[in-house]
Amino acid sequence: MPEKSLDSVFVRNAAHQLADACHQAAYQAGWWHDLNTGEDQTFDYLVDVLQAKMKPGRNIPEMLMLVVSEVAEAMEGCRKGLMDDKLPHRTMLEVELADAVIRIMDLAGGAGLDVPGAIAEKLDYNAKRADHKPENRRAEGGKAF
To answer: What's the rounded Cα separation, in Å, for the pair 136 and 119?
Structure first.
């Protein structure tokens, strides 16, 4: 595992708190229980799915596409310059991005994925990437849109 900076420890802890809050909200609302049986559908992705020890209760591809739909809604709100209909003091872009993060963190919490740790490690990794430096992004073939 890469060396952890003080900032990455802070990010990891903050992201874990966010993941816990998002997952607990969804869990308490019943999203992680079978609608017909009430059976708990949380699982450990690394054990239950990758090692094929048992079938997970939630449909991960469906959950990932729900994240995509939130991002698509953010794009539409951005394109049209819309305010959100449920939180009218916020832009649709802000709210739909928040929905995407909530869905990602809920999935992380319910599937036992260390997305917070991956975020902290990826931020550390990206800080050292040559292709993320402005001079390299400006260069021919650099990361630019």
So the answer is: 23
d(CA 95, CA 78): 11
The pLDDT tens digits for 124-134 are 888 888 887 77
135 pLDDT band (50/70/90 cuts)?
confident
Largest CA distance in the chain: 58
User: What gap in Å lies between CA 126 and CA 14, rounded to an integer?
Assistant: 19
CA geometry: angle 41, 86, 94, nearest 5 deg: 80
Q: What is the per-residue pLDDT across 85-104, written as a single tens digit (0 to 9) for each?
A: 999 999 999 999 999 999 99
Residue pair 91/84 in contact (Cβ under 8 Å)? The answer is yes
d(CA 15, CA 120): 8
- Closest by CA position to 48, among listed 101, 110, 104: 110
**Residue 1 pLDDT > 90:** no
> Which pair of structure tokens corresponds to residue 34?
């079978």
Contact by Cβ (8 Å): 128, 5: no
N-to-C CA span, the chain: 32
Report the amino acid identity of residue 115: V
